[in-house]
Design brief:
Aspartate Aminotransferase, domain 2; 7-stranded mixed β-sheet; globular; oxidoreductase; glycine dehydrogenase (decarboxylating) activity; EC 1.4.4.2; Probable glycine dehydrogenase (decarboxylating) subunit 2
């Protein structure tokens, strides 16, 4: 397929603009660019056909199965988008007078109320733009907590080896040293290793529960107690909240601060890289350190708690204004549409789908952790690779020829040749059965005809690229 620049024909166009209804101001030459912009020149018909062809090549949840655990690619109800388009939400400005945006402020306050109830927290900021940004913000709260107590020797954050890669990175950005502890052979936090790691330098412990291999840690209350007894705080990575909404709350597990991924758990489309939302909730002991502005509810109206009145203990802004507001609107719409029972049912279906798929595949693929799993599970292709030289990458690429998006590959790092599947709560049994059959067929091909898989995909617009060359010498722009 040609690029739109390659289809361009000089002096061809399609603009039909109305006469200007305002005075035309001539701009001085010194403010004008000296060279024309490189813009494609095309007719309206050719533009329409070009982007229609691109749309046909785009794969999304509306095309087929998308078990990508890292972003929870699931069906996002269209009503969310409709509500977010309301002029009263989409045509506002954060610097408008407070009395003109009462509905918007109420949305933020309602979202805080419901999300605090879901997580077991007391207060929340919506400023962080995404998950890792939320991690950084939560860790800044932990730092502020220890600094106010003059406990300045607490400069270590403990992170299990199964953690998301952003956890240690965020801790380092927040100025902490990272202490890594190993998992048990069953995939849980090693309590003895944790007891050895905690001490007078422990600022906090970061964990997602269920963890990245899809297991809910049965020792979670003991884990958080160990950290608290050592004087540290417990941080909950909300990336895996999907299977426990309405069933278990991080606050009840002993966590002091949590970030959520509104673009994952609460159904804002995120596959194209944004927009996201990573609000941070906390227990009362951390409330005074939260960023501002925040929304406060007075007797007759909603108001904002701005930075000037936040006090010296606030960590300050981490993003402008209130965060990505329309993401909050979509999340609140999702919560109000489903209600408490609906959120719980979504969690239960996510767990059911993952366990069904895992149990149907366990006699074919190696499942390193027996489960039961929560919303996702991990398979290891290490033995298959030794036997046939077929890798996890080969299996993932071959799925493309069956119209299935590959799952997360080579993560978590504690599982070699890993494929992590998250079927999500919105997939039907019929779809799961079809996908299971494909996975079994691909595995059979790996055993009987491995050389075929190493050349896949063959039915996609682009075959398998030279990934090393693409990484080292990327072509990121069109050369005119």
């Amino acid at each position: 397929m040609e690029l739109i620049f390659e289809k361009s024909v000089e002096n061809r166009g399609c603009e039909i603009l109305p006469p200007s209804d305002v005075p035309v101001i001539k701009i001085e030459n010194r403010y004008l660019r000296q060279n024309d912009l490189h813009l494609p020149e095309m007719s309206e018909t050719d533009i329409s056909r070009h982007y229609t062809e691109l749309a046909k090549r785009t794969y999304g949840i509306n095309n087929g199965f998308y078990p990508l655990g890292s972003c929870t690619m699931k069906y996002n109800p269209k009503i969310n988008e409709e509500i977010a388009k309301f002029p009263g939400f989409s045509n506002v400005h954060p610097l408008q007078p407070v009395h003109t945006v009462q509905g918007c402020l109420e949305v933020i306050k309602l979202a805080e109320k419901y999300l605090c109830e879901i997580t077991g927290m007391n207060s929340m900021t919506f400023q962080p733009a995404a998950g890792a940004h939320g991690e950084f913000t939560g860790l800044k709260l932990i730092r502020a907590y220890h600094e106010e107590r003059k406990d300045n020797n607490r400069n270590e954050i403990i992170v299990p080896d199964s953690a998301h890669g952003t956890n240690p990175a965020s801790a380092a950005m927040a100025g902490f040293s990272v202490i890594n502890i190993s998992s048990t052979k069953d995939g849980y936090v090693d309590l003895e290793e944790l007891k050895k790691a905690v001490g007078e330098n422990t600022a906090g412990f970061m964990l997602t529960n269920p963890n990245t291999v899809g297991l809910f840690d049965k020792n979670i209350l003991e884990i958080t107690q160990i950290v608290h007894d050592a004087g540290g705080l417990c941080y909950y990575d909300g990336a895996n909240l999907n299977p426990i909404m309405g069933i278990a709350r991080p606050g009840d597990m002993g966590f002091d601060v949590v970030h959520l991924n509104l673009h994952k758990t609460f159904s804002t489309p995120h596959g194209g890289g944004g927009p996201g939302g990573g609000p941070v909730g906390c227990k009362s002991i951390l409330k005074k350190y939260l960023p501002a502005p925040r929304v406060i509810e007075r007797e007759e109206a909603f108001d904002k708690y701005d930075l000037a009145s936040a006090g010296e203990l606030s960590i300050g802004r981490v993003k402008e204004f209130y965060g990505n507001f329309l993401v909050i609107v979509k999340a609140l719409t999702y919560i109000l549409t489903l209600g408490g029972d609906g959120l719980k049912e979504a969690s239960e279906n996510a767990v059911l789908n993952a366990n069904y798929m895992m149990n149907q595949l366990k006699d074919t693929y190696h499942i390193p952790f027996a489960g039961p799993c929560m919303h996702e599970f991990v398979m290891s292709l290490e033995e298959l690779k030794k036997e046939t030289k077929v890798t996890a990458l080969d299996i993932a690429k071959s799925l493309l020829d069956y119209g299935i998006h590959p799952p997360t590959m080579y993560f978590p790092l504690i599982v070699h040749e890993a494929l992590m599947l998250e079927p999500t709560e919105t997939e039907s049994k019929e779809t799961l059965d079809q996908v299971i059959a494909v996975f079994k067929k691909v595995y059979e091909d790996a055993l009987n005809n491995p050389e075929v898989l190493t050349g896949t995909p063959k039915k996609t617009p682009i075959g398998r690229p030279d990934e090393v060359t693409a990484a080292r010498n990327p072509m990121l722009r069109y050369i005119f």
